[in-house]
Design goal:
single chain; alpha/beta; binds glutamine
């Protein structure tokens, strides 16, 4: 039977609960254990697919097409846990299931209530990951203890030890110990209150992970242990890491977290081996090169809106011993100031995915600049669609070319809805989603980067390259280097007469890992490094 770890958060949000949960998964895997990861989100949206990136950051897409919380990105980057639709549940999804059952008469005339019907459904969602092949299931609960909407989830996880035995469950609570400059000391009261709230519900945390700005000191740790009713050695400090998120797991090992978990759950585990991770951190700390990449997008202000893209750029940097400096550019600003003044001096330009009309012309300007000035360019999803529009307007001379997403009556719909999307009415989970096979054209840059003929990548879009225009693009020099197996859908385009100009309809950023950079990101950073060298030589 699988054992269960529950990670809750207290005091404030944005403590890095997702990252800490992923780090716990990583530590357990490094001890030879098999792990599954899951996130429970108390909001009412059925999934985050319909949420604005401004509110919730990026929507992370899985192979099976599930649109999930971005914390699942941390899980995939840090662990080998297989993720699926069952790895992310929201209040909305739980209620939807319960209400559907009620309509089918499955409750046999009973009054349907939060306890036990909603809580039973939550417990079933957690227990779905039980598997003889899995040693530990780690379930992260979104939100902060004390939120009204989180209560049914806390009640459900309170009950799980009654079903499977307290010794098979571990409650880890992540909190903040603020340092008050005026008082000159760290304050433990908010943590005491947060744990107090958990205990009122009936959950006694076994381990406290306390986020700190300054070192806590043993005295404070012991005080927290006493007031929160946890063992002294179960107060684990997790100080802010200014340098890199890759330091988090190493810090937790140093503070004994992996051993504590193994002991408390009575797991059979080998000694920890963090050498690969240490090697990675060494590379991050000691880069030999540096490149500047402009990311030209619409949701630039939100630090998490393109989370996986920033991560994938870092991974590619690690692969090439380079520090990647990201210049975040609001595409609308570029429309006013002109591409040259904003983009001169960058080594590569990346236009990420997105929705809606705002900022499109700025993205197109950035792409034109990259194409004409031979700056390496990487377009992703909407970024590819903009590259197609730019080429149509400037090279094919189709002046009003556009996507029907932005101009329904454009005379040249080079990007458009294909038939199966035209029927779609519901906005939720109705895009072309998840893993799709893409066949690569031998001899192209894409095939060279992947060193393969057949790849699988994750999608999340409604609009497509319009096949009616395909031959005109190809004749004018835009190659189709990747397409769906039936040849009908254009998945990758590139320019042969450019140092590196490649754009993809899918989201490669979702499959990049710190120790396994995605081949296209790696190729892009390699080209950016070459561009950087060239620029240096020109200024000599
Ligand atoms: N808005 C575009 C579409 O729906 C691109 C989507 C994206 O970039 N993820 O096709």
């Amino acid at each position: 039977m699988s054992k269960h770890i529950f990670v809750t958060g207290g005091v404030v949000s944005s403590l890095g609960k997702g990252l800490t949960s992923a780090a716990i998964g990583l530590l357990l895997e490094r001890r030879g254990l098999r792990v599954r990861m899951q996130k429970l989100d108390p909001y009412i949206n059925v999934d985050p697919g319909t949420m604005s990136p401004y509110q919730h950051g990026e929507v992370y897409v899985l192979d099976d097409g599930a649109e999930t919380d971005l914390d699942l990105g941390h899980y995939e980057r840090f662990t080998n846990s297989e993720l699926s639709r069952d790895s992310n549940f929201t209040t909305g999804r739980i209620y939807q299931t319960v209400i559907n059952k009620e309509r089918r008469g499955e409750y046999l005339g009973n009054t349907v209530q939060v306890v036990p019907h909603i809580t039973n459904e939550i417990k079933a969602a957690v227990r779905k990951l039980d598997d003889p092949q899995v040693d530990v299931v780690i379930t992260e609960l979104g939100g902060t203890v004390g939120d009204i909407e989180g209560l049914p989830f806390l009640e459900a996880i309170r009950q799980i030890p009654l079903d499977i035995g307290r010794q098979n469950c571990l409650f880890i609570h992540l909190t903040l110990i603020p340092f008050l400059k005026a008082a000159g000391e760290a304050k433990t009261k908010p943590t005491q209150h947060s744990v107090g709230q958990l205990r009122q519900i009936g959950i006694q945390p076994d381990i406290l992970i306390v986020r700190t700005e300054r070192e806590l000191g043993r005295e404070n740790a012991e005080k927290i242990a006493l007031f929160c009713n946890v063992e002294k050695n179960a107060v684990i400090e997790e100080p802010d890491k200014e340098f890199s998120i890759y330091e988090v797991p190493l810090g937790l090992v140093e503070n004994g977290l992996d051993q504590l978990i193994v002991d408390k759950l009575g797991l059979q585990a080998r000694p920890i081996d963090m050498s690969e991770w240490q090697g990675l951190l060494h590379k991050v700390r000691n880069p030999e090169h540096e490149v500047t990449i402009a990311v030209v997008g619409k949701y630039i202000q939100h630090k998490d809106a393109y989370k996986s893209i920033y991560e994938a750029l870092d991974h590619a940097g690690i692969a090439h011993s380079a520090r990647v400096l990201v210049k975040r550019i609001e595409s609308e600003e570029l429309e006013g100031q002109g591409a040259e003044s904003v983009l001169s001096g960058v080594d590569g330009i990346l236009v990420p995915g997105g929705f809606g009309m705002r900022g499109i012309e700025g993205k197109i300007d950035a792409i034109r600049y990259a194409r004409l000035c031979e700056v390496p360019f990487f377009g992703i999803c909407l970024g590819m669609q903009c590259a197609v529009i730019e080429f149509a307007r400037d090279v094919l001379d189709l002046k009003d070319a556009n996507s029907t997403e932005f101009a329904a009556d454009t005379p040249h719909p080079v990007i458009c809805l294909l038939n199966d999307q035209k029927k779609v009415i519901d906005m939720g989970a109705s895009m072309r989603l998840g893993a799709q096979v893409c066949l690569l054209e031998p001899g192209t840059r894409a095939a060279e980067c992947y060193d393969a003929e057949r790849v699988s990548e994750r999608h999340r879009h409604r609009y497509e390259f319009n096949p009616e225009y395909r031959s005109r693009f190809v004749e004018a020099g835009m190659r189709v280097s990747g397409a769906s197996p039936d040849g009908g859908l254009v998945e990758i385009v590139e320019l042969a007469d450019h140092p590196w100009f490649l754009a993809v309809q899918f989201h490669p950023e979702f499959k990049s890992k710190p120790n396994r950079a995605h081949p296209l990101f790696s190729g892009f950073i390699e080209a950016a490094l070459a561009h950087h060298q060239q620029r240096l030589q020109m200024t000599l």
